[in-house]
């Protein structure tokens, strides 16, 4: 079952990176992040196939720090790769025609939101760069048209609901027992957003 979940994780990583966003670049995201993450998942899958571990406190106290360390090492390598990329001035066009200056591979939609107002920076959930949904903390890569969405927009609500569904999905995954009710009923969650006409 665990090996199946690892395979599913590999599929979801590939699917979500292609779904609504474009990669940073072949060098930065596809070649670095996905390759590192795929290799680590493959190694984890092989380790679990070699030996099964009980999901007790001892196992978790050993495993969780390793996972955190793995995340931090991949994050550090990604940040190092990003800092080595060329940075030069770019022009960011807002929906009202206002032009903002930024730095390639450094300025993020969140940085632009902070320049506009603290309220917008606190409430913006997702950005759109040249028509493509874009994480608020993801650096801009070129001259672009930028839109920012809060929960008041369809894009903002869909992003919030979709992210929340993934968090609930993690709670529902073994070995978490939070969703098991006293009378042995098990909650079930769907990760894909519900079509607007069915809400």
Could you describe the 3D structure shown?
The chain is an alpha+beta fold and 199 residues long. The protein has 3 domains: 2-85; 89-150, Beta-grasp domain (Ubiquitin-like (UB roll), Roll), CATH 3.10.20.30; 154-199, no CATH class. It has 6 helices and 5 strands, in the order H-H-H-E-E-H-H-E-E-E-H. A 5-stranded mixed beta sheet has the order 2-1-5-3-4. Strand 3 and strand 4 (132-134) form a beta hairpin. Residues 13-30 and 177-191 have low confidence and may be disordered. This is threonine--tRNA ligase. Residues 88-150 form the TGS domain. One of its GO terms (biological process) is threonyl-tRNA aminoacylation. GO terms for molecular function: ATP binding; threonine-tRNA ligase activity.
